[in-house]
Each structure stands twice: as structure tokens, then as C-alpha cells.
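Table 4 source record.
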Amino acid sequence: SKRDALRTKRDEVQARAANKGGFEAEVEQLQADLKQALKELPNDREIPGLLSEIDALARKSGLEVRKFQPLPEQTHEYYADVPVQIIMEGSFHEVAIFFDRVGKMGRIVSVEDIEMTSPKETGSETTLTIEGKVVTYRFLTEEEIKAAHDKDSGKKKKKKGGEE
């Protein structure tokens, strides 16, 4: 029985060795996917440049930017939302151009909670006030993930201790 167990184990190891090329190819693909994800989610150092790019897109689209205020980040398990409150003025067409340009950015950026109010007739065009948020995302550093995990563990321990 010991010999049979060793033969079974040998056969399993040989099968894994035969699939080594497939595993290496899978690792390479996963590394390429990670590089692509890192391109789409900036790190801390890239956030100011990304926000400047969004502001420039609004201006290039013909919108008048009245307010562009970064809001506090909201952290999740492995990433953080980086919201910015915006107030702009312009025509519906200019707003549509801005949204199109934001959608074509190389980074993940979403536009949320948009309200178009205060229509004003100026000549042959209607101007709107646009209020909402532009949200980009970033990966958390290892230290931030660990700190958040430690904080969550502390909360769970307090809850258990309070119930006993």
C-alpha cells in the first residue's frame, strides 16, 4: 500500500511537471492583466495629475468650471474612491462632449450624481449648471490594507467584548 501511495504521488508530480508550461503561461497572463489594471487605477502620486487632466477636459469641452473640490477618499478592501465635487456651466452639447472624453480616458473615471439645473437662454444656446461628482479610483498600498484590516479586527473584538 505504501508503494501504491508513492506511485500515485509520483504520477501527480509528473502530471504537474507536464503542465508546467501551461502554468507559466497563466502566470505571464496574470502579470499582464495586473499591469493593465495598474494603468487603469493610478497610485497616490498620479492622482493630482489625473485630476488636472479631468479639469482640462472640462475646459477643452467648452465648460466653465465653477468648482472643482476634492472630497475625502472612501476606502474599500483593496482600493479607494477618490471623489471630486464639480460645478460647471455650459450647454448640453458641451456636457456630452465632456462625458465622452472622460469615458475615453486611459484611467477608470466615473461621473456620478449629476444634476443639470438653471437653464438660461443666451442667444441661440441654452446654458445649464451641472453639479455632481467625478470619481476615480486607486489601489491601496500594502500598509493601508493592513491598517484597514487591523482596524476592522479591532472593531470586531470590541463588539464581541461588549456583548459578553
